[in-house]
Write the structure tokens for this entry.
Amino acid sequence: MILLTPPFAWSNFPSMTPTSNEKPPQAPFPRTTTSPTQPGAYWYQPVGLLTAKLLEVRLTNGELTVWWADRDIAIVKLRGYWLGPILPSTGPVRR
């Protein structure tokens, strides 16, 4: 789990404008309060907190869950902001 320290803001993500000879990166993801509908990696920021966590959403016994406080928690019980799913890396950046 990765924690971002305050002040965390969704606008702090790097610029999505490519520089010379770079392929354009993925379009930025919209932040939403809608829970994930598929497994994958997501940024999650609980309501009222300034930190966000990178969580792995998994399918456990037919239900989408995350590992939280030493146990699986159904994502429908979490209230906050979601960003993702985050696509896997395509490898190191060539310079």
